[in-house]
Every structure is written in C-alpha cells, then in structure tokens.
Write a structure and sequence with these properties.
The complex is a heterodimer of chains A (377) and B (67).
Chain A lengths: L5 E3 L2 E3 L2 H12 L5 E11 L6 E7 L6 E7 H7 L8 E11 L4 E11 L2 H17 L18 E5 L3 H14 L4 E6 L7 H14 L4 E6 L4 H4 L5 H9 L4 E5 L7 H5 L2 E2 L3 H8 L3 H61 L3 H5 L4 E4 L2 E2 L9 E6 L2 E6 L2
Parallel strand pairs in A: 5-7, 8-9, 8-10, 10-11, 11-12
Antiparallel strand pairs in A: 1-2, 3-4, 3-6, 4-5, 6-7, 13-14, 13-15, 15-16
Chain B lengths: L5 H17 L4 H24 L3 E4 L4 H5 L1
Helix pairs in contact in B: 1-2
Classes of the chains: A alpha/beta (377), B mainly alpha (67).
Chain lengths: 377, 67
C-alpha cells in the first residue's frame, strides 16, 4: 500500500491512519516465526471471534500480545492454562485502527514434557470424572467376530503383527484395515474419523494398534477426540498402543488393553484348532446326550412292560389269596362245632334227612369223630 | 435363521448339548433337538472348513487429507 504524506508548512505529515497502515504493511512483510513463552492472561469467550493471550518471556518478563481465531484455537484442543510454556507459530501484525501490535498465531504447541504431562493428567481427571474409564463400561469381546476393524499407521510392523496374529490363529477372519496418521497434529482427527468409518462398515470389534514411539509420538492417542471416540465406539475396542509402560488415555477408555499389537490380534479371534476341538466335543456330546435319553426312555419302557406282563398273574394270586381267606371263614362256620356237642348229620345220598325216612333207606351219619353208614327201621 | 452368525449357532448348539446332557427331554422333543443340533454342527463345521479370510483396506483418505 502506498502511504501518502501531506505537506504542511514544509513538513511531510502522515495521518494516524496512514501511519498505522504504513507500519502495518511493513510489518506484514516480516516472516512467520516460532516464539516461545509462557501463557498469561488467556482470554476466550464463545461470542468472541478471537482468543487473546499474552506471551511472557520467563527470563525478563517481556510481553507479547497474541491473537488467534477462536475456531482454530478450539481446534487445537490444547486446554491451555496460564503459566504453561508454549511455542507459538505466527506473524507479527498491527491492527491499524487501534495501533495495537500483536502476534497473529497460526498454531500453538505446548512445549516441554512437564507441561504435556500436566495437561494429560488434567484431561485424564476430567474424563475419569465423566466415567469414561469406568470398569462397568467395559464390554466383552465377541467370541467370533464377523468383521474386525483395524486402525494402524502405515508403518508396517504394527499392522503386520496384528494381521499375522489374527490369521495364524483364525484363518477365516475378515479384517477391514484403516490406515491413518498415527502421529503428528493430523493423527487425532484422522483416528477419530477412522473409528467412525469402520463402525459404519459394520465391524463388530475394533483394534487400535501402534508400535512404540516417543511420548510426543503417542500423544494423539491421548487426544480427547480419540479417547472419546474410543469410549463412544458402539463395538468393543482393543487398544494396543506403544509399549507396556506407555498408558495413553485411549488405553483407559478401551474395553481391553493389549500389551502389543500381536496380543491384540490374538485376543480378538478364537483359536481355530481349539474351536474345531470344541465343535467335535459338542457334536459328540449331542450324540451321547441323545443316546442316553433314548436309553433312559427304553429302560422305563422295559420296566413298564415287565410290570404289565406280571400284572394278570399278580391279580390272580391276589384273588386266590382272598378265596383262601373266605374259605377259612367258611370253615369256621361249618356244623363241625355242633357235631362236637354230640349232634349228628344224617344224609340220604346227597340230601339231608329231616323227616323219618322209609325203613330200609341207607343213611350216612356224620358225627364229630367221623362218618358211618346206617339203615332206617 | 439363515442370518444366524457362527457365534449364535455356537451358543445354540451349546445350549442344546447342555439340555441333552441334563436329560429331561421328551422323545419327541429329543428328535427335534437332536436334528437341530446336527444341523447347527454341520453349519458350524462348514463355516470353519470352507471359510477363507479376507483383509480389505478401507479406502485411504490420507492423500485427500494432505491437501
């Protein structure tokens, strides 16, 4: 921009506006640089277009105003606190209307391990308070997944380890692989998106695998977007990120944590040999159980038949016994008792003699001691 | 029924075997259960025998994201 001065009483004079614009135009030509400092006076409000902070030099307290569009600042998800050390990448800018000088930030990165750890710890506390890591949220893995989702970087090792473990143990497995960035600023949104994409394709278990790396390399796996995507994933998630001693937050949100990608692979599928053995056992059990039931029913049938066969005989015997009893009672009622008292029974043929018979009739006389013949006179 | 996954078939087969092992099954039901069990076994065995896995790459968006 050409800045015009006016001649006033022999002087070149600039208006404030022209001056500011001139300086602003000059400053804009300066290169984009990284500036390191401590965050102070961080001001952010939802209704503001920009976020403001003051970057302070920890050595001598020199200050620099920093501005960043709010959308971009929020997108970084830094959860910055006053006092944290950061690197700000930006270019100097003069706001011509007010003559305010500031650094227009293009990106901000937390600097220093301690600061990262503190931020991570804060995020961990916050998500834990929401219950994202709760034990009761953990789901069981499907015994035989129909479609396994795998998110890895294109570094071959982790991906190969998972796939080898899966196909060795369970050759019929179907795996859907999504390669994403697994480090750097693009990784977190890429991973979160990949989780959603894989779920939309109908996976029933998800593996998140990444080999070992530096603390900074693994940071995307502690990014709030990734941790939330893992926690909200509609299917169980196995997390195998970094080495045993690393615990990125996504490990805490996952349903199962595997110490290595290979372990993750083995966890999601059954062993085909074992499965076949199980199937054979089940099949044998099916036949054995059925046979046993048939046998039991057969035994019952045989018992019933036996009882049925014996039933008439039994009834007959019972009836005979009853007859015997009756006969005993009958005997007790016989005239024998009367004969004992000296009476006699006189028969002619089969008939009892109640009237004096015709003389000469042959008679049979029964007395207590026995029977003898007689003839009427 | 044809939509039954291997896992569902596996669970059903296990339940049938358990019932048969308990033994409190009538003969008529036994026939049905046993036939069903055999069918499930056949289905599982076929799936294990025939299936060859697939490894598919989800369409990469890496390049798109880089721009």
């Amino acid at each position: 921009m050409k800045v015009e001065a006016t001649e006033v009483e022999g002087r070149k004079v600039y208006s404030v506006r022209a001056f500011n614009q001139g300086v602003a135009g000059y400053i804009e030509k300066l290169p984009t640089v990284w500036v390191e400092g401590e965050v102070t006076e961080l001001r952010r409000q939802d209704r503001w277009a920009s976020v403001f902070l003051t970057l302070k030099d920890p050595e001598d307290g020199a200050c620099l105003a920093v501005q960043m569009p709010r959308g971009q600042f929020d997108g970084l998800r830094l959860d910055l606190q006053d006092g944290e050390r950061v690197h700000v990448y930006g270019r100097p800018e003069l706001y011509a209307q007010r003559g305010d000088f500031h650094l227009r930030a293009l990106t901000i990165e937390r600097y220093g391990l301690g600061a990262h750890l503190a931020a991570l710890e804060r995020l961990k506390q916050k998500l834990a308070a929401e219950g994202l890591f709760a034990a009761e949220r953990k789901r069981a893995l499907p015994r035989i997944p129909a479609l396994i989702g795998l998110i890895t970087g294109n570094d071959a090792a982790a991906k190969r380890d998972v796939l080898t473990a899966i196909t060795t143990r369970f050759p019929p497995a179907h795996v859907l692989v999504a390669e994403t960035y697994v480090q750097g600023p693009r990784a977190a949104p890429a991973i979160a998106t990949a989780i959603g994409d894989l779920c939309a394709r109908g996976i029933d278990v998800l593996i998140l695998a990444r080999g070992g790396g530096s603390f900074e390399d693994l940071l995307p796996f502690s990014d709030e977007r990734v941790v939330r995507a893992v926690a909200e994933c509609p299917v169980p998630v196995v997390s195998a990120v970094g080495h045993e001693q690393d615990t990125p937050l996504c490990d805490l949100a996952a349903d199962v944590r595997a110490s290595t990608p290979s372990v993750a692979g083995r966890l999601v599928v059954p062993d085909l040999t074992e499965l076949r053995a199980w199937l054979d056992r089940a099949h044998a059990g099916l036949g054995r159980g059925a046979r046993r039931i048939v046998e039991r029913h057969g035994e019952r049938l045989a018992t019933a038949r036996e009882r049925l066969r014996r039933a008439p005989l039994l009834a007959l015997e019972r009836r005979r016994a009853r007859l015997d009893t009756t006969r005993g009672r009958l005997l007790a009622l016989s005239p024998r008792a009367t004969l004992e008292r000296g009476y006699a029974i006189v028969r002619s043929g089969d008939a009892l003699v109640r009237e004096p018979p015709v003389p000469g009739t042959a008679l049979a006389v029964e007395v207590a001691g026995g029977e003898f013949g007689a003839r009427a006179e | 029924m044809s939509e039954q996954t291997f896992e569902q078939a596996q669970v059903e087969l296990e339940q049938i075997v358990e019932r048969l092992e308990r033994g409190d099954v009538g003969l008529e039901e036994l026939t049905k259960l046993w036939e069903r069990g055999e069918e499930l076994y056949r289905r599982c065995a076929e799936q294990l025998a025939g299936a060859q896995g697939t490894i598919e790459e989800l369409a990469r968006r890496l390049d798109a994201q880089q721009t």
